[in-house]
Amino acid sequence: MFPLCLGFTWTVVPCSATDRPAFCQGRNAKRGRMILDPPAAGPSVVDRLEVVDLEAALGGPVARASHLATSRWAARWGWVPIVAVTTAVVRVPLLGLPLDPDEGGYAYVAHRWAAGAQLYTTAAWVDRPPALMLVFRWITDLSYSPIALRLAAVLAAMVVALGAGACARTLAGPRAGLVAGLLAGVVLAGPFVEGYQLNGELLASAVGTWGVAVAVMWRQGERSAERQGERARRRSTGWLLLAGVLAGTAPLVKQSAIDALVAVLAVAVAHAVRTRRPRALVASSVGAAVPLVLAVAWGAATGWSRAWYAVVAFQAQVAQSQSLGHRVGQLASSVRHVLPDLLGLLVAATVAAVLLVRQGRRLWPVPVWLAAAVLAAATGPFGHPHYWVQAVAPLSVLAASAVPSIAQMDRRLRRVAITALAAAVLIPVVGQVVVLARPAASRPVLLTGDRRQAADTAIADWLRAHDPVAGQVFAFVGAAETYLDSGRGTGYPYLWYEPVQHVPGALPMLGRWLASNAGPRYVVVFQSPRTVDPSGLLTRILARDYTLAVTIDGYRILARR
Asked: Which ranges of 303-323 would DSSP assign to H, the alpha helix?
């Protein structure tokens, strides 16, 4: 055969003059064929040319090739929609949980920033890095509402789960990628680890996990790139540069999120030691420096001293004010709190680690990635449960690495591995059921130990009903979610308890503001004034200038006299 344009093929077959009447009668035409005779005077090379429809001739092979391509795609990427959909679905029951003070406070500050206030000034003060506030600004620009924050958290969790799946797929195959993605997606929906919140750890893990994923993929393809020559090596280095950018962005979202950066640099250092060339280390370092340089330039242009104090110096000040015993107690409390969600994943990761040791596999750079994540979570200044969110992705990748070897395990070890993986998925789901089975008012107390979140909705409804002009209110002193829930603003810059206690001049400023004519119309007393100010000044100001308007769920709302 040889091809003819317009989708036909010429087939050479024997022919005699006696066939012509049959062709003229259309017998062969009904079969979809056209018979062409050579000129009579031409050389006797062929007797007849028969044109056959290509689609009919190759229908079988084309279908088989198409099916093979589809199967290959499903084997390589079929886990992606499964992980994405599962991650979204398991978080749906938690969309209605109350906002955390951090979520509400970040959204309020970002909203003020978008309205023209300068970040890190008394008009929009926050102690978080600019990349985190930029994300919250993007979200609140679209919708300044609690449900917008919850939906953004769903999207961030999907990014983390897909990043963990990409890491595991590169290191241990497609089945491991699927399992790692499912583990990360489900565990991040656990109510006790607080992964349902839009916190800095979740957002930092979204960019950091993909930084590690890109670095791991670069490491796997490096030998192939080296065989292809200098051009391929330059292209390969570009991917490591991207990994550095992503990993370097994570600490600008959450100060403690250095785990991905450590992992990416570990990949680069290992390559540099193996090849005795600094190319990889230089590329990853330059990439990591890009977001840092941009942040420094932005801080210098908008007020370096203010940004440095809020993001770095204030955090160090708070950490130094806490004793070692207090920090250890907070750490132990946070570990006990997150165990219902992380215990199964921890056991599965331990089983996988034992198997890797037996097989002599390193799964580089997951060990250093996990160690850095655990260290960052354990050394956080307040012992919040959501600190452990950044350990979920490396734990999931480690746990899933055992999946390809399950078929080769002995029966006892196989049973342990399967049971551990199943428990890692089921325990967080059971935790959801336990939480959602409780009355709505008791859920925040179970999850955070803070009963004020259960009263947020009723308090916000009362403020909207009794303050139709949207005047100033004050959540005394740390329930920053009140401003977003009620749609009201405040004239006091420090929205959380720690800044009120540690920022120089913050407490006297609060007293002056409450006593002035510019003070709030309503004060919601979430914490005792004596606790906030042992001198009694705030207690006297509230008693003199405000009167009780209503008590909701045990919290007093004071109105200006």
From this structure: 304-308, 314-320
Per-residue pLDDT of the chain (561 residues; tens, 9 = 90+): 434 333 333 444 444 444 444 444 444 444 444 444 444 444 444 444 444 454 444 455 555 555 555 566 666 778 899 999 999 999 999 998 999 999 999 999 999 999 999 999 999 999 999 999 999 999 999 999 999 999 999 999 999 999 999 999 999 889 999 999 999 999 999 999 999 999 999 999 999 999 999 999 998 887 666 666 555 555 568 889 999 999 999 999 999 999 999 999 999 999 889 888 888 899 999 999 999 999 999 999 888 999 999 999 998 999 888 888 888 999 999 999 999 999 999 999 999 998 888 888 888 899 999 999 999 999 988 889 999 999 999 999 999 998 988 878 888 888 888 999 999 999 999 999 999 999 888 888 888 878 888 899 999 999 999 987 777 999 999 899 999 999 999 999 999 999 999 999 999 999 999 999 999 999 999 999 999 999 999 999 999 999 999 999 999 999 999
CA dihedral (358, 359, 362, 368) positive or negative? negative
**Residue 138 to residues 198, 210, 526: CA-CA distances in angstroms?**
13, 21, 30
Distance CA(509)–CA(299), nearest Å, equals 25
Q: What is the pTM of this model?
A: 0.84
Contacts of 305 (CB under 8 A, 6+ apart): none
Which amino acid, 549?
A
| Kind of pairing between the strands at 546-552 and 555-560 | antiparallel
Identity of residue 97: L
